[in-house]
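Thread amino acids onto this structure.
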């Protein structure tokens, strides 16, 4: 079995555990809400503050996107492992 596929499946399982963890999910949603409120309350002339908050929002969104990517690739890796195991069973007969 290819180690890269096994690693992707394991990473997907870890990502799934994080996503399903209520503490992590609450922290992620809470941080997004806090940043959005901070951005909304800032005034147009507070350019540096708005830029800093916007970059933080983008960082949180990138983290969430990476988590989704790990989940997707983990699921694809698990499917590939199942296919290879089924093929190996057929070859052994």
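Threaded sequence (93 positions):
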């Amino acid at each position: 079995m290819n180690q890269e596929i096994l690693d992707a499946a394991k990473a997907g399982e870890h990502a799934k555990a994080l996503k399903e963890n209520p503490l992590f999910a609450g922290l992620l949603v809470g941080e997004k809400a806090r940043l959005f409120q901070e951005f909304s309350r800032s005034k147009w002339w507070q350019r540096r503050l708005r830029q800093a908050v916007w970059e933080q929002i983008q960082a949180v969104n990138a983290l969430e996107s990476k988590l989704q990517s790990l989940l997707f690739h983990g699921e694809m890796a698990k499917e590939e492992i199942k296919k290879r195991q089924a093929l190996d069973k057929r070859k052994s007969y």
